């Protein structure tokens, strides 16, 4: 009896281990219902988060409640740096991802983004979609980490939020500027600043205390991160496209375990995050700029002549070079040719759209008394 009892206990624990390591979507006790755990390192009030929430709600709606997504925001479950590994390991089923968080692990994605050229928030999605559909190595790069991207957001732009006022490029010399990753840090150094690496959650306190003088941030952060409260000046330098490859992804094991009808719904709704985020991006930017003005901030858009000086100083090809070399060293071919093609494509799209920047739109609305 003792041997039998011991054997039963051992078998019991083996079953627990097997079940725990089997992967696949979290199943609730209700027949056929699937509950997915999800994580995002950014705040719930951010424009991207609104897109992720809309995606989760639409997934539940179109599956008639069969699939539910439980999202934790603000890095509570996984912070930015640990998101890729945590998602691949199955800590959560779904996560908000960005190549900026793990550039050395997503070298090709990190290289293929023509940043510091034109408006990526408006014009970047078309370029990104073209790359995703024509460069199969991009999909494989994420799958190597047991991660399956299912939706991409629009690109992102940054404006400068500073605790001091300035009028020209030279005024940035020696100022401490937040730099996210290698490319961003090189750009800020080229502008004459001293790059400082801090998380988005620490930006408010850093600017308030003066440990950082300038933070490049999407304009909605004036509201979502309360940067309007600590920014004495908000500056639009026009050539401020900041990021591509920000999206929503599944743990691959979880995704592969889903029923085919659910996978079809996921494919059908892949544009919703970008659509919702795009509108929220605009609305929150206008609200943020208005709040910054109410808080007494100076709002500046550089003249075309001054912004051209900034672009020349940033020198986008020099910013891209380390990322391109890293991708080449990782074994990827034709990286330079692909980024050159993407850059030309972005320029052509920008010429056709000729959109005014968000700050330019705000200043025009303000002058008309419409905001």
Which helices and strands appear, and what pairs or packs with what?
Elements: H1 2-21, E1 34-39, H2 47-62, E2 67-72, H3 83-89, E3 94-98, H4 107-111, H5 120-134, H6 136-143, E4 147-152, E5 156-157, E6 159-162, E7 176-178, H7 181-190, E8 194-196, H8 203-209, E9 214-217, H9 221-224, E10 233-236, E11 241-243, E12 246-251, H10 252-257, H11 260-268, H12 272-294, E13 298-301, H13 304-314, H14 316-329, H15 335-353, H16 358-368
Helix pairs in contact: 2-12, 5-15, 7-14
Kindly, what is the distance between the CA atoms of the first and last residues, rounded to a whole number of angstroms?
81 Å
Rg calc: 22 Å
Q: Strands of the biggest beta sheet: in what spatial order?
A: 2-1-3-12-4
Considering DSSP H and I runs of 4 or more, what fraction of the residues is helical? 40-55%
* Biggest pleated sheet: 5 strands, mixed
Mean pLDDT: 90
Question: pLDDT below 50 for ≥5 consecutive residues: which ranges?
Answer: 1-23
* Class per helix and strand makeup: alpha/beta
Coarse morphology: globular
Oligomer: single chain
Order of helices and strands: HEHEHEHHHEEEEHEHEHEEEHHHEHHHH
Total number of helices: 16
Instruction: Tell me the strand percentage band.
Output: 15-25%
Counting DSSP E segments of at least 2 residues, the number of strands comes to 13
Protein name: TRAP transporter substrate-binding protein DctP
GO biological process, one term: transmembrane transport
InterPro entries: DctP_fam (IPR018389), TRAP_DctP_sf (IPR038404)
Keywords: Signal
């Amino acid at each position: 009896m003792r041997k039998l009892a011991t054997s039963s206990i051992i078998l019991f624990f083996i079953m627990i281990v097997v079940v725990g390591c089997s992967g696949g979507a979290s199943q609730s006790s209700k027949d056929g219902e699937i509950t997915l755990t999800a994580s995002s390192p950014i705040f719930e009030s951010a424009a991207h988060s609104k897109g992720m929430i809309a995606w989760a709600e639409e997934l539940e709606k179109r599956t008639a409640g069969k699939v539910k997504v439980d999202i934790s925001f603000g890095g509570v479950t996984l912070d930015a740096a640990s998101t890729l590994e945590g998602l691949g390991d199955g800590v959560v089923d779904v996560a908000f991802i960005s190549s900026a968080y793990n550039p050395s692990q997503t070298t090709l994605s990190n290289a293929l983004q023509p940043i510091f050229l034109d408006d990526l928030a408006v014009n970047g999605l078309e370029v990104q979609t073209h790359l995703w559909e024509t460069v199969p190595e991009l999909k494989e790069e994420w799958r190597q980490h047991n991660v399956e991207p299912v939706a991409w957001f629009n690109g992102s732009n940054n404006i400068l939020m500073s605790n001091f006022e300035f009028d020209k490029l030279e005024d940035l010399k020696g100022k401490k500027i937040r730099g996210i990753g290698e490319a961003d840090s090189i750009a800020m150094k080229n502008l004459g600043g001293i790059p400082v690496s801090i998380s988005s959650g620490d930006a408010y306190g850093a600017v308030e205390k003066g440990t950082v003088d300038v933070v490049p941030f999407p304009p909605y952060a004036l509201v979502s991160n309360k940067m309007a409260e600590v920014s004495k000046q908000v500056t639009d330098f026009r050539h401020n496209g900041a990021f591509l490859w920000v999206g929503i992804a599944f743990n691959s094991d979880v995704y592969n375990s889903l029923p085919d009808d659910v996978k079809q719904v996921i494919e059908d709704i892949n544009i919703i995050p970008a659509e919702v985020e795009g509108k929220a991006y605009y609305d929150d930017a206008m609200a943020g700029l208005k709040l910054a003005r109410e808080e007494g901030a100076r709002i500046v858009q550089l003249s075309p002549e001054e912004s051209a000086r900034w672009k020349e100083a940033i020198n986008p090809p020099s910013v891209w070079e380390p990322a391109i070399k890293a991708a080449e060293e990782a074994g990827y071919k034709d990286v330079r040719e692909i980024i050159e093609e993407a850059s030309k494509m972005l320029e052509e799209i920008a010429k056709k759209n000729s959109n005014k920047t968000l700050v330019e739109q705000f200043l025009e609305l303000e002058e008309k008394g419409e905001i």
